[in-house]
Amino acid sequence: MLSSLDWSALAAALLAGVLLDALLGEVSRLHPLVGFGRLSNAIEARLNQSAAGPMRFARGLLAWALAVLPPVVLTAWVLTRSMPPAAQIALHAILLYFCIGLRSLRDHMLPIGHALLAGDLAAARALTARIVSRDTQHASESDLAKAATESMLENGNDAVFGTLFWFAVAGGPGALLFRLANTLDAMWGYRSERFNLFGRSAARIDDALNFLPARLTAISYALLAPGAAGTRRALACWRQQAPAWDSPNAGPVMSSGAGALGLQLGGAASYGGEIELRPPLGTGSPALAADIPRAWRLVRNTTWLWLAAMVAIAYGAHHA
């Protein structure tokens, strides 16, 4: 572990940070990521202009470094200063709390299922539009359930497991590095005229940071599938379907998760008024409203699995 805390202290900080997230949820006002987003927009507006080719890529890399490295280096420096162990644990826990999004994932996704089960399609469409970029104005129940389930599975990795992985590697600064990099990928990692070159470094760095967490997430989804048959199905979907996806990390996560749930995801989706035919994910029946809570339980149970594994490793390391 690369932080200034030993395994047992980091285990305490890990549990405290996840507990804070479960109790408090996402900060409603003055969330640090909101300030980070504004800073990143200002940097992008300043640097993403009047350049082409390699120079535009270089400017994007510089923008990434200016946005991400100062807060990460500053927090790492603060945490190496002499302070009581309890204060260090508290700071690591607070950083994890601000970076992890398990409670937020539940609070954004489950209301979609509730609205669909209540027959309120208009509310379900509005709620889904807040979390996905695809068109929802004319989406059916199955379209909305599919969008929410896919988002639950993918963001389980992006908002929860990737953060936990990098927290285990480098404590609070590691979690912060991952979350800021993932945020910039969401802001700049598009293949549009504006961001194709400028945002390419943000996308590639996020891919690199996510490579191991995504595969550990895919393995976890498969292990927690119902029965040995579910595990075999999830692993088969991962092996056969993930290579067809452009994203090297979303493919394994979503294909394994869809296979674990026994659902058929992927396929056609509307973006900007045009139908995009995406590769298939999973196998089985199309997603329905009741499958959204099932996807949540898979993410929640995977979180408990990771916490148990990390605490067990911490205990073993402490008593070695």
Q: What does this protein structure show overall?
A:
With 320 residues, the protein is mostly helical. It has one domain (7-318). It is 71% helix and 6% strand. The chain has eleven helices and three strands. The chain has helices at 7-24, 32-47, 54-80, 85-99, 102-117, 121-129, 141-188, 200-223, 227-241, 250-261, 291-318; strands spanning 263-271, 274-282, 285-286. A three-stranded mixed β-sheet has the order 2-1-3. Helix 2 runs antiparallel to helix 3 (54-80). The longest helix is centred in the middle third of the chain and has 48 residues, at 141-188. The model has no long low-confidence stretch (mean pLDDT 93).
Throw out a few tags for this protein.
320 residues, mainly alpha, three-stranded mixed sheet
